[in-house]
């Protein structure tokens, strides 16, 4: 019996998000609004072996570089991910995602009585990061702790 191997094609230009927490790639696609049209090539590998983290997901996006706001959102879902910017088939920049100390407008407070959840109050949700991995944040207004599982639910 011959073993076959599936290889993922290299991209010429774009972004590779590696070391995503296993089974979180679909959340990241939702954050990035992908696939956005029929011309954007997106490659997803899910639950693959990783020497560093055991199991991981990988997302490759051709001809698109993620922006700062998108990186902050990805950090909430996959705090150990790495971002590789590719140009002419070569990685020109490789960074670990860094969860900012303060998060604004990305998630909602889970406390229904929080002022940020009142429709007649135009207040932007703000959260302070209490723990980076796994992510735990605290609402700036009502001080409710939002744990990883509650964060994940908002991206489903």
UniProtKB/TrEMBL annotation:
Gene3D superfamilies: Aspartate carbamoyltransferase regulatory subunit, C-terminal domain (2.30.30.20), Aspartate carbamoyltransferase regulatory subunit, N-terminal domain (3.30.70.140). Zn(2+) binds at residues 109, 114, 139, 142. GO terms for biological process: 'de novo' pyrimidine nucleobase biosynthetic process; pyrimidine nucleotide biosynthetic process. Its cofactor is Zn(2+). The keyword rRNA-binding does not apply. Residues 6-97 form the Aspartate carbamoyltransferase regulatory subunit N-terminal domain. It comes from the Archaea. One of its GO terms (cellular component) is aspartate carbamoyltransferase complex. Keywords: Metal-binding, Pyrimidine biosynthesis, Zinc. The keyword Metal-binding applies. Residues 102-151 form the Aspartate carbamoyltransferase regulatory subunit C-terminal domain. It holds the Pfam family PyrI. Binds 1 zinc ion per subunit. One of its GO terms (molecular function) is metal ion binding. Belongs to the PyrI family. Involved in allosteric regulation of aspartate carbamoyltransferase. HAMAP family: Asp_carb_tr_reg. Contains catalytic and regulatory chains. This is Aspartate carbamoyltransferase regulatory chain.
